[in-house]
């Protein structure tokens, strides 16, 4: 078990213009707060009323931004959660004091986001920094309303409402909510979508103290599970982070609650009273029984209150004189919470399936060892212990020396060593094959000889002669130089010496003459198609040839003609947009659609290469770690046996020298692969921007085509044509057809204004927009169904 530690308690003061400077004072160390009340003279001469209070805390957050609050309160708790420690962050205080703003923040503004979204971001950032572990993240969102449990994520289509009511269940592993849905999230945007989905389902009400008062306690839980990628050990760690947003305590005389809001306030005050009783009992070392089961809130938080977790309390208070009594009550709660001790410990678990497999494998090997024990009876030493990483590195070194010819034979000790020798032979062979293939790909472009389409494209590019021999291909009698194209011989300027940029710009001009899109927008998309070619450092010739083949096989679209086009009769009812979109992609938008598909395929290819490079980097990193351990073992062995020096130079054996050389080569490979990965990531970002531009252009052209074909009246179109009765500027475009600003347009404008200041906010805003679109759609469909019933 870990060492016991006190609960951390912080106070956040809500900013106000009417701050009581004479009654509320902060300590010089910013870790204490003093309250002074004026003596009530109406009680007479003998007046024992207390007028001064002083509270020692872990920090006072006055006029603190959301960034400062998170760095002070939550960052360390979330960081330790990925190391296996449970964590709980709780916001407590009077209604309207800023608890929900501290925990969730303003979802409309990225800068004003609270502890909860920042914790999600930190978890996924730390996962990216730990490639040696396979980490899974799950989330759940629980609401306790009027002593009833509700799942805030039950509105998702794949969850649905629960038939049986949720209950709190205890087992040796802890407390969990039976019936609460837990959702796997593989990326940051998915987690934000679940958060926003739950926020829209929370119950709020309005009273005199708070316009949007939370009427329930909410617990957002992040479950983390980490398995090692490098070690085959069956041990793994788990942890959970409870982010608790308590409903605010309120005085009915001040809030003026009535009816349903009054009933809610009664349940809230009752549960908060039971919570304070549990805190007082936890702070008393002589108490044996802690009343956790008095209410659903304390029962659900049994693991968090005084358990094996890092506990942090944020007490939100007013700074006004009119709320001083409630402020004193909140500060007393914070002081009592500081008396509670927790015992954080790493949550280690064992994978039963992996453990059984390891034991079965071990048993099989031991049986084989015993079976050949009699045949090896003449040997004086046989070990049955499994080989460690240092011994495996030693066998790998012996195999390499044996292949190089510096070692005549490998001494055989037992069956395990024989199996490992063959395994290392396979490893070395695989590495050599990869090195040869990598060296060839760095120098040459490999083309399959059975791919006749690629060969014809190469011949067209004058990279192959008429006999089918590539330039530089041997002729069977020696080193053949091949046949160079006539245009590349000395003394002539080859037209093919043009840069890619010149060729592609010519292609763009060629396409501009036949594209249905006119003017500046067409030039943009011709460029977006061609700018992908120089992204590859070595010039991906095969991709270029395939694109050339597709371009040559595409028939140019007919150019605009002054003659009136013969259009099919307009249908009485416009077709649905999905059907019309398919027709548009096959006809007028075929060129833009082809460019979009081409850019998307190049983007997918870059992503695949980045994934392969990442795997190679991880493999090299593991080899570096193994080599370092073997080298450290050799150094310690040399120190134990005694070091030898010759003219001030340390003498090392051959084995240690080979390990040093191997480590140097591995580090060089690691730097090279990492640089390639950085280049690929830059290319992916560039390609993604081009794909987004193509998609936006395709949708915009489709809207124009759809309105021209099915929405705008034909007589209006005739009047708008050159020579018609309506001159440009006489009729506003928005009076012809209404193309109102949709969510995607607003999101694009938001990206232009916000993302330059906060590039990490894209997942936050993506999730926000998707949640709003979903609820707008559901609201519209509900209204249509009600209108249909009427």
UniProtKB/TrEMBL annotation:
It is found in: Cytoplasm, Cytoskeleton. Keywords: ATP-binding, Coiled coil, Cytoplasm, Cytoskeleton, Microtubule, Motor protein, Nucleotide-binding, Phosphoprotein. ATP binds at residues 93-100. Residues 349-376 form a coiled coil. PROSITE patterns: KINESIN_MOTOR_1, KINESIN_MOTOR_2. Residues 6-340 form the Kinesin motor domain. It holds the Pfam family KIF9. Its main location: cytoplasm. Residues 481-525, 547-580 are annotated as: Disordered. Belongs to the TRAFAC class myosin-kinesin ATPase superfamily. Kinesin family. This is Kinesin-like protein. It comes from Galeopterus variegatus. The lineage of its organism: Eukaryota, Metazoa, Chordata, Craniata, Vertebrata.
């Amino acid at each position: 078990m870990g060492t016991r530690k006190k609960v951390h308690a912080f106070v956040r003061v809500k900013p106000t213009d009417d701050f009581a400077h004479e009654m509320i004072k902060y300590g010089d160390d910013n870790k204490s707060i003093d309250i002074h009340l004026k003596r009530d003279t109406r009680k007479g001469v003998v007046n024992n009323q207390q007028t001064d209070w002083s509270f020692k805390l872990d920090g006072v957050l006055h006029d603190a931004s959301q960034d400062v609050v998170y760095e002070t309160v939550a960052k360390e708790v979330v960081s330790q959660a990925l190391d296996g420690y449970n964590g709980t962050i709780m916001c407590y205080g009077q209604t309207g004091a800023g608890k929900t703003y501290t925990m969730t923040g303003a979802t409309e503004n990225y800068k004003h986001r609270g502890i909860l979204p920042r914790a999600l971001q930190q978890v996924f950032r730390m996962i990216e920094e730990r490639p040696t572990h396979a980490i899974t993240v799950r989330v759940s969102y629980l609401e306790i309303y009027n002593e009833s449990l509700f799942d805030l994520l039950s509105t998702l289509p794949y969850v649905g409402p629960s038939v049986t009511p949720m209950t709190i269940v205890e087992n040796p592993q802890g407390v969990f909510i039976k019936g609460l849905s837990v959702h796997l999230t593989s990326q940051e945007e998915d987690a934000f979508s679940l958060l926003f989905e739950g926020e829209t389902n929370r119950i709020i009400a309005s009273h005199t103290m708070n316009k949007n008062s939370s009427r329930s306690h909410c617990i957002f839980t992040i479950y983390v599970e980490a398995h090692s990628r490098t070690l085959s050990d069956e041990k793994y760690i788990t942890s959970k982070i409870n982010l608790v947003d308590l409903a605010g305590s309120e005085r009915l005389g001040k809030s003026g609650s009535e009816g349903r809001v009054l009933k809610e306030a009664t349940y809230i005050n009752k549960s908060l009273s039971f919570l304070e009783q549990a805190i007082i009992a936890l702070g008393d070392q002589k108490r044996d029984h802690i009343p956790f089961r008095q209410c659903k809130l304390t029962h659900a938080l049994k693991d968090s209150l005084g358990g094996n977790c890092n506990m942090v309390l944020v007490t939100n208070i007013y700074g006004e004189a009119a709320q001083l009594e409630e402020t004193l009550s909140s500060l007393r709660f914070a002081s009592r919470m500081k008396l509670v001790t927790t015992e954080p410990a790493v949550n280690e678990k064992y994978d039963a399936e992996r453990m059984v497999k390891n034991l079965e494998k071990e048993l099989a090997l031991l049986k084989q060892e015993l079976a050949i024990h009699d045949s090896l009876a003449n040997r004086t030493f046989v070990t049955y212990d499994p080989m460690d990483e240092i011994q495996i590195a030693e066998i790998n070194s012996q195999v390499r020396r044996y292949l190089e010819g510096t070692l005549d034979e490998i001494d055989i000790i037992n069956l395990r060593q024989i199996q490992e020798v063959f395994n290392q032979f396979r490893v070395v062979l695989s590495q050599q094959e990869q090195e040869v293939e990598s060296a060839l790909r760095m120098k040459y472009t490999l083309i399959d000889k059975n791919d006749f389409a690629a060969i014809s494209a190469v011949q067209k590019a004058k990279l192959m002669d008429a006999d089918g021999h590539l330039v530089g291909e041997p002729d069977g009698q020696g080193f053949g130089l091949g046949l160079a194209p006539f245009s590349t011989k000395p003394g002539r300027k080859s037209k093919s010496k043009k840069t890619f940029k010149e060729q592609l710009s010519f292609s763009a001009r060629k396409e501009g003459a036949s594209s249905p899109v006119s003017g500046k927008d067409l030039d943009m998309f011709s460029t977006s198609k061609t700018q992908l070619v120089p992204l590859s450092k070595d010039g991906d010739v095969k991709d270029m040839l395939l694109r050339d083949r597709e371009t040559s096989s595409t028939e140019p679209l007919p150019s605009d003609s002054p003659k009136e086009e013969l259009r099919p009769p307009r249908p009485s009812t416009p077709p649905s947009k999905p059907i019309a979109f398919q027709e548009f992609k096959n006809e007028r938008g075929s060129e833009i659609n082809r460019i979009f598909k081409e850019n998307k395929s190049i983007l997918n290819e870059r992503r695949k290469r980045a994934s392969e490079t990442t795997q190679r980097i991880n493999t090299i990193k593991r080899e570096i770690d193994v080599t370092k351990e073997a080298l450290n073992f050799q150094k310690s062995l040399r120190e134990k046996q005694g070091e030898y020096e010759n003219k001030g130079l340390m003498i090392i054996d051959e084995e240690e020298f080979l390990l040093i050389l191997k480590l140097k080569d591995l580090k060089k490979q690691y730097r090279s692969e990492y640089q390639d990965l950085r280049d690929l990531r830059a290319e992916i970002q560039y390609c993604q921007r081009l794909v987004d531009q193509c998609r936006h252009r395709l949708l915009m052209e489709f809207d124009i085509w759809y309105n021209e074909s099915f929405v705008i009246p034909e007589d209006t179109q005739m009047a708008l044509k050159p020579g018609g009765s309506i001159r440009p500027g006489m009729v506003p475009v928005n009076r012809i057809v209404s193309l109102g600003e949709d969510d995607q347009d607003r999101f694009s404008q938001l990206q232009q204004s916000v993302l330059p200041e906060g590039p990490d906010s894209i997942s936050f805003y993506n999730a926000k927009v998707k949640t709003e679109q979903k609820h707008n759609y559901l609201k519209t469909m509900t209204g249509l169904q009600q209108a249909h019933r009427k």
